[in-house]
Amino acid sequence: MIARFARVAFGGLVLSVLGLAPPPLQLPTQRAPVFRSGANLVYVDVYPRRDGRVIEGLTPSDFQVLEDSKPQSVYLFDFI
Q1: How far apart are CA 48 and CA 27, in angstroms?
Q2: Cβ contacts of residue 56 below 8 Å, gap of 6+?
Q3: Dihedrals φ, ψ of 46, to 5°?
Q4: Displacement of CA 46 from its chain's centroid (Å)
């Protein structure tokens, strides 16, 4: 039994030395997961003041909201 193991080990050593052994197994590199997302609604708090006092009576048309220099629509406006 030991002699058989020695022959197999020696045979593997000889093949490795001669370069006939198969190359070591290489695992593929893993890529980081990609997460895609989007936003359909964004809340923006605004505190309009003039001379330290809150400006009342504003409407959505009084505001200009830009994203990447492109105007965005104001769908909801609530004065609190």
Answers
A1: 59
A2: 79
A3: -130, 140
A4: 30
**Confidence (pTM):** 0.45
Q: Do 16 and 24 form a contact (C-beta atoms < 8 A)?
A: no
Render pLDDT for 14-47 as a digit per residue (tens, 0 to 9).
445 555 556 677 777 888 899 998 878 888 888 9
**How far apart are the C-alpha atoms of 7 and 43, rounded to whole Å?**
75
Cβ 44 vs Cβ 65: under 8 Å? yes
Tokens encoding 50: 């003039």
pLDDT at 5: 43
CA distance 11 to 18: 11
